[in-house]
Design brief:
Elements (H helix, E strand, L loop, with lengths): L1 H15 L3 E2 L4 E3 L8 E3 L18 H58 L2
Antiparallel strand pairs: 1-2, 2-3
Keywords: Coiled coil, Signal
């Protein structure tokens, strides 16, 4: 278990110090102690409507804006979930590769030690 945690920690450390592109959004961690940040790269925030004394039908403009905001938030949620799913899959594959490599190396070390007896 300790080996598994160490391997996982090393992999997290490697991912943590380098920016990377997820499926669509961008995940960044500026330093090992910093929080991860995520930003959308496919969803576009709607412009806030502006009003003045000449604005016709401000309630209608706000209603349209609300629909656009709802679509924007739905887009961001989907993109974030897709990114999370992909990152989880890639992390699992990286862990499995590292564990397989480690087991292979240990087996080779054992075979070499046994052949020297």
């Amino acid at each position: 278990m300790r080996s598994y945690i160490s391997t996982f920690s090393i992999l997290i450390g490697l991912v943590a110090i380098s920016p990377g592109t997820a499926t669509a959004g961008e995940i960044l961690k500026t330093s090992p102690g910093a929080d991860f940040t995520w930003s959308s790269t496919t969803c576009f925030k709607p412009r806030t409507p502006t009003f003045n004394s000449q604005t016709q039908n401000p309630a209608g403009l706000m209603s349209q804006y609300t629909v656009k905001v709802d679509a924007y938030l739905a887009c961001m949620k989907k993109e974030a979930q897709d990114d999370f799913d992909r990152a989880q899959f890639e992390m699992q594959q990286a862990i499995e590769r590292e564990l397989e490599k480690t087991v292979t190396q240990i087996n080779e070390d054992v075979k070499r030690a046994a052949s020297k007896r």
